[in-house]
């Protein structure tokens, strides 16, 4: 048994090896709907641990871990153990999964296993978070690797390498080149809940625009592919008025294949552009207003100039914000109220600062561009008393551009699979 781990607000978490046929706490999951099982897989040798939580001397089984061997060659050092976890519904969302997976990785390392793996569905963002918090590192995507009742699924592969193993293993950081990566799998949307992600490109010295006041000169073809992917299955692209004035967005258009996928997901034919503006001084003659499949939304706080408001209403779907709180929370709530739950915030710097202050950001997809441009910063505004923490769940690189994906860390509650 490993050292018990005290977890704030939960109790003490331990893992305990048990026989394969020991009773398991019931833990249904959308990722466990297997359909017909292969008789061959029934012969797979699996090790099991019970996850227990102790509070005031009373111990409750809350879930279990399993591990099976994966052989990458005929030598003992080529044997990795692939772990899986399940937690009873009522114990999810408290950080137990991250602790248990870290404990089992440490126990296996202590027994001489250098490489502990975990594979999880590309859509299972909560488990990806838990693995990151457990100290696992994302290695890539295993395409079409798991068959469940509804067909083949891609899995992400994560690993936890024994820090005491060979220096090469201990220090290697695996960065998958963007070549050969299926971007749709690399930038998934969670199902069944709203999601707010930011997408920005930033130079090595923190600039978000070049000398022309626009971001295009900082970007690359691959960065534009990533941005297109992040938008592709979104409901809405949210920007500040400054960005529209600088960048002059064009109407969003989707390819035929994407349209079919959007329709299957119940999304409109293209993401809607949503612009936040107090002044309502916007480039109304830009084609984005007249030629978008769905008219852009303009969100404005109370007190707009009546003439400008009338002009805005002639070109856009105007939402008057209630003006009760910080302004940006209301923007997000107004989009949700319209059924627009998959939000990509593309900046600019002042809107991003507003969103940061709401605490509602779920994900930041930041591209680091290999340039020094002098000038600029990502978010402008009064700093937060307590900066909001994020954790890195993915890095891809191509032609010296680094594409990162960070997920918000909102305490233990954020680290477990959504129920
Ligand atoms: N590198 C990148 O990825 C990237 C991405 C986007 C933009 N950019 C760059 O960023 C620059 C634009 O940034 P920016 O800070 O000037 O503009 P911004 O953040 O796009 O827009 C700021 C404007 O949005 C409106 N606004 C924001 N929050 C509001 C709220 N709560 N209530 C009412 N209005 C609100 C205001 O519009 P009004 O002024 O109309 O009142 C405000 O002036 C450009 O140079 C652009 O190229 C870079």
What does this structure look like?
This protein is 24% helix and 31% strand. The chain is α/β, with parallel strands linked by helices and 419 residues long. The protein folds into two domains: 5-174, Gcn5-related N-acetyltransferase (GNAT) (Aminopeptidase, 3-Layer(aba) Sandwich), CATH 3.40.630.30; 195-415, Dihydrofolate Reductase, subunit A (3-Layer(aba) Sandwich). Residues 167-174 and 412-419 have low confidence and may be disordered. It binds NADP nicotinamide-adenine-dinucleotide phosphate (NAP). NADP nicotinamide-adenine-dinucleotide phosphate is lined by residues 200-201, 208-209, 213-215, 218, 239-243, 246-247, 276-279, 281, 301, 327-328, 346-351, 354, 380. NADP nicotinamide-adenine-dinucleotide phosphate binds next to strand 10, strand 11, helix 7 and helix 12.
């Amino acid at each position: 048994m490993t050292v018990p781990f005290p977890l704030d607000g939960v109790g003490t978490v331990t893992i305990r090896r048990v026989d394969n046929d020991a009773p398991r706490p019931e833990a249904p999951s959308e990722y466990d709907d297997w359909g017909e099982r292969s008789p061959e897989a029934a012969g797979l040798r699996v090790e099991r641990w019970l996850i227990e939580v102790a509070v005031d001397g009373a111990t409750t089984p809350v879930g279990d871990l399993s591990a099976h061997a994966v052989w990458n060659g005929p030598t003992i050092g080529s044997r990795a153990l692939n772990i899986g976890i399940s937690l009873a519904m009522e114990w999810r969302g408290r950080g137990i999964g991250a602790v248990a997976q870290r404990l089992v990785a440490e126990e296996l390392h202590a027994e001489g296993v250098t490489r502990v793996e975990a594979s999880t569905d590309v859509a299972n963002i909560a488990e990806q978070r838990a693995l990151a918090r457990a100290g696992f590192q994302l290695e890539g995507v295993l395409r079409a690797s798991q068959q469940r009742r509804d067909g083949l699924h891609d899995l992400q592969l994560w690993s936890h390498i024994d820090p005491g193993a060979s220096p090469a293993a201990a220090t290697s950081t695996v960065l998958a080149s963007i070549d050969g990566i299926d971007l749709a799998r690399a930038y998934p949307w969670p199902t069944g809940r709203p999601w707010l992600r930011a997408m920005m490109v930033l130079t090595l010295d923190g600039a978000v625009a070049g000398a022309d006041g626009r971001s295009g000169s900082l970007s690359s073809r691959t960065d534009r592919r990533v941005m297109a992917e992040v938008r592709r299955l979104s409901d809405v692209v949210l920007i500040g008025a400054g960005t529209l004035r600088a960048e002059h967005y064009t109407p969003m258009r989707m390819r035929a294949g994407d349209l079919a996928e959007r329709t299957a997901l119940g999304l409109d034919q293209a993401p809607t552009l949503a612009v936040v503006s107090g002044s309502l001084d916007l480039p109304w003659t830009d084609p984005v207003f007249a030629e978008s499949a769905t008219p852009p939304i303009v969100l404005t706080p109370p007190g707009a100039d009546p003439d400008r408001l009338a002009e805005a209403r002639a070109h856009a779907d105007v939402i008057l914000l209630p003006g009760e709180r910080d302004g940006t929370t209301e923007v997000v709530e107004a989009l949700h109220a319209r059924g627009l739950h998959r939000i990509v915030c593309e900046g600019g710097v002042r809107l991003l600062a507003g969103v940061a202050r709401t605490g509602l950001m779920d994900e930041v997809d930041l591209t680091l561009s290999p340039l020094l441009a002098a000038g600029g910063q990502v978010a402008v505004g009064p700093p937060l008393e307590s900066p909001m923490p994020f954790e890195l769940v993915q890095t891809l690189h191509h032609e010296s551009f680094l594409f990162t994906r960070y997920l918000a860390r909102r305490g233990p509650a954020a680290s477990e699979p959504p129920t």
